[in-house]
Amino acid sequence: MGFKVALLASMIMVPSLASAAEKTVATAYHFGFTSIEGEALPLESFKGKAVLVVNTASRCGFTHQYADLQTVWERYRDRGLVVLGVPSNDFGAQEPGTEAEIKQFCEVNFDVDFPMTTKVHVKGDGAHPFYSWAARELGAMAKPRWNFHKYLIAPDGRLVDWFATTTSPTSTKVMRTIEEHLPEVPGGGATRS
Q1: CA–CA dist 28, 50 (Å, integer)
Q2: How far apart are CA 20 and CA 183, in angstroms?
Q3: In the chain, where the domains are located
Q4: Strand 50-56's sheet: what is its strand order?
Q5: pLDDT score, position 185
Q6: How far is CA 169 from CA 17, 63, 152, in A?
Q7: Which DSSP symbol is given to 51?
Q8: Which of 7, 27, 54, 168 has its CA 20 to 30 A from that of 147?
Q9: Which residues, 6+ apart, have CB-to-CB distance to 172 below 8 Å?
Q10: Residues 79-89: what's their mean pLDDT?
Q11: What is the pTM of this model?
Q12: pLDDT tens across 119-154, in order?
């Protein structure tokens, strides 16, 4: 009888321990992607930089935002910002291509040279762990509802804000928030170009 009780107790405790572990993740540095070229891409490799994570799609009415993302990348990369494109086919099946096709599309049509990942799910039970964590961190309203949803990670790995699909990467709101979270230069102040 005691064995059955102990077994039942351990079965109940295991899921609760997993839930507790998920909730204790404090920074984005616990997650990683695979680059569009197939290499490991841990978010920890961007430690000390601000990171704008954007789920992208090549056949979307918002695909023109690739140009705006490239503009933001060019403006702030020397000041400590990384733009990270995360292709996803979750909304309207608007990213059906292979990684090679996605990369070529972005380079040819928008001169994209910011880092991109392999295609992942950003919603539902199969969502990439970063996206599941981001939804828990910022709440249900912060979940991606369409392509080109944006999350901003601070240089210390905290998730600090999100921006809806309809908010342009070059909008005053996004640019101001990025500038507020650029890395500090030794001696104080954000980096300047």
Answers
A1: 11
A2: 31
A3: 30-180
A4: 81-87, 50-56, 150-153, 159-163
A5: 57
A6: 38, 12, 11
A7: E
A8: 27
A9: none
A10: 98
A11: 0.84
A12: 999 999 999 999 999 999 999 899 999 999 999 999
Q: Which residues are catalytic?
A: 60
> What percent of the chain lies above the pLDDT cut of 90?
81
**Residue 166: how many other CB atoms lie within 10 Å:** 12
> Three-state SS string across 120-139, please?
CCCCCCCCCHHHHHHHHHHC
Q: Which CATH number fits domain 30-180: 3.40.190.10, 3.40.30.10, 3.10.580.10, 3.40.50.1220?
A: 3.40.30.10
CA atoms within 13 A on the CB side of 111: 7
The span from the CA of 41 to the CA of 10, in Å, is: 35
- The secondary structure element, H or E, covering residue 9 is helix 2-23
Beta bridge partners, 35, equal 117
Asked if 180 and 78 touch (Cβ cutoff 8 Å), the reply is no
Strands 32-34 and 40-42: antiparallel
